UniProtKB/TrEMBL annotation:
Keyword line: NAD
A Pfam short name: Epimerase
Protein species of origin: Parageobacillus thermoglucosidasius
InterPro entries according to UniProt: Epimerase_deHydtase (IPR001509), NAD(P)-bd_dom_sf (IPR036291)
Domain NAD-dependent epimerase/dehydratase: 8-253
Protein's UniProt name: Protein CapI
Species lineage: Bacteria, Bacillati, Bacillota, Bacilli, Bacillales
Length: 327
């Protein structure tokens, strides 16, 4: 069953950002075609629980599959009237890329090439895709600007995300395919990924297990609340592709780096428990600070992230306690 509306195609729709974006678009009256391979990089029950929420919506269609499967993608692009593609499917994680490099090449490079080919062939109005703040590597300029050089990635994950930007540029240049890359800065919030700091820390603190704090807690991260991310993407979908250039890159960040030690303090306060801290030096593939220059984004969509770290962590902890039935 398929309605006659144009679809927004979201890959990775059962992932953290993908789920929030899918839900928001459906609430706004869009028709969404969602795809996810439901892999077990982290607990799949979390993915299925996210999916259950959006599956109730009459204007949502779900297909289980991978962007690495070009035949399946071709079939979906032919079957559905897709207007905009938001590619969020990827193998995430900096540390996991040190252990399992081939997975990153397949999902993030081969899979993305398939998306580009289908978008070109089916003359998609706008391809929006996830890049990452990790492309900045050990950038010394602060805040990080989209005009800064990004040719020194310090992890394979970052290298694949940089590759996505270069591939998108080529398709925009050769075929005038409108592409917009989003460099996400440490996105957090309810329904987050269990491999990310906030979730890992909350889990360990509740169980009174030690948490590993790299660079002795002196790292700074531009933590960005998930609702600010979905609002930004929604506005970019509404706005459509750039008129002056088919190729655009934006930083999606909060523009306010927070020290990791303070981040943990706020989490302890909302959980009502103290962390057992294991202080460690910097890890390979990690960077001491991320800080997003979002002037370009604010200018183009007239929106600046609003949710403070204190409010964002409070909302996460409320969800976390409710989801895991913690008193």
């Amino acid at each position: 069953m398929q309605n006659n509306a144009k679809y927004i195609f979201i890959t990775g729709c059962a992932g953290f950002i993908g789920f929030h974006l899918t839900k928001r678009l459906l609430d706004e009256g869009f028709s969404v075609l969602g795809m996810d391979d439901m892999n077990d990089y982290y607990d799949t029950s979390l993915k299925y629980d996210r999916l259950k929420i959006v599956m109730k919506h009459p204007h949502f269609r779900f297909v289980k599959g991978s962007i690495e499967n070009i035949e399946l993608l071709e079939k979906l692009f032919s079957q559905y009237d897709v207007d905009t593609v938001v590619n969020l499917a990827a193998q995430p994680g900096v540390r996991y890329s040190l252990k399992n490099p081939h997975k990153y090449i397949q999902a993030n490079v081969v899979g993305f090439a398939n998306i580009l080919e289908c978008c070109k062939k089916h003359k998609i109005r706008h391809l929006i895709y996830a890049s990452s703040s990790s492309v900045y590597g050990n950038n010394k300029n602060a805040p990080f600007s989209v005009a800064d050089r990004t040719d020194s990635p310090v992890s394979l994950y970052a290298a694949t995300k940089k590759a996505n930007e270069l591939m998108a540029y080529t398709y925009s240049h050769l075929y005038r395919l409108p592409t917009t890359g989003l460099r996400f800065f440490t996105v957090y919030g309810p329904w987050g990924r269990p491999d990310m700091a906030l979730f890992k820390f909350a889990n360990a603190i509740v169980k009174q297990q030690p948490i590993e704090i790299y660079n002795y807690g002196n790292m700074k991260r531009d933590f960005t609340y998930v609702d600010d991310v979905t609002e930004s993407i929604l506005r970019l979908i509404d706005k459509g592709p750039s008129t002056e250039s088919p190729y655009k890159i934006y930083n999606i960040g909060n523009n306010q780096p927070v020290q990791l030690n303070y981040f943990i303090e706020v989490l302890e306060e909302h959980l009502g428990k103290k962390a057992i801290k294991k202080l460690l030096p910097m890890q390979p593939g990690d960077v001491p600070e991320t800080f997003a220059d979002i002037d370009e984004l604010v200018k183009d969509i007239n929106y600046k992230p609003k949710v403070s770290i204190e409010e964002g962590i409070k909302r996460f902890v409320e969800w976390f306690k409710d989801y895991y039935k913690i008193n």
